[in-house]
Design brief:
The protein is 23% helix and 16% strand. The chain is of the alpha+beta class. It has 2 domains: 91 residues, no CATH class; 45 residues, no CATH class. It is globular and about 55 Å long.
Length: 141
Amino acid sequence: MNAREVVLAYYAWEEREAERVARVAAIEAGGETVIGLANEEVSRLEFYMMYAVPPGTQAPLMRCGCVATAHDAEGRWVCPVHYGLHPGAVVEAVKTPDLSGRRAACEYCGKQQPSALTLPFFEYHPDQPLDSYYCGCRGWD
């Protein structure tokens, strides 16, 4: 990559970042919850990240163990973390598990709280003592 290409790539990144910041501000002004933002690589996989889940809407648990936070090109729920890697990323769990008495730990800092499908980036691990989620300890951007 030569110097000109580096500069052009940086300007393209700045433009995408400005669009992302504007979208987040618009979502937050509307009182919705930010779930995730698509980046260039993700959009190439032909599924679209869901920018917000309206209050009162519950995304389904997928067979990979994650709560879905994206839609594919046909509008079906998918798990963007395991999309293309795990067949359960595109198939909803047959039955929502009973999470009463279970705890989830943040994968980065270890903070624990009761397991719930509404936790950010929640993953259900039936064969382990703790489920996982992200508490926000490293920021949201």
